[in-house]
Amino acid sequence: xxxxxxxxxxxxxxxxxxxxxxxxxxxxxxxxxxxxxxxxxxxxxxxxxxxxxxxxxxxxxxxxxxxxxxxxxxxxxxxxxxxxxxxxxxxxxxxxxxxxxxxxxxxxxxxxxxxxxxxxxxx
Length: 123
Known about the structure:
Elements: H1 7-29, H2 38-64, H3 67-74, H4 76-89, H5 95-122
Helix pairs in contact: 1-2, 3-5
Subcellular location: Membrane
Keywords: Membrane, Transmembrane, Transmembrane helix
Protein name: EamA domain-containing protein
């Protein structure tokens, strides 16, 4: 994407494609209804706003920094998901999910660190 393209262009496509996917899936499932509880509606709006904010920050980070450190930082999502699952939902992760998360974190970290090392060695 580079620095010549405004980062909101990527965020715009993220939102539009997400909207199209949701409309198609909801149409197939015939589930066109809003949650009956007011709190659930606010939670849906909060998820949408935080999703757009996350995509905005990720796109901006990829424009400012090299992909290696950004990808390495993104692996923190997996760790935080397990942490929040345990703290807020009182659900301990299974050994299978911990093993899968470990594979994701190690492989992403390895690739990111290798790219980061190779790019810093060339400069």
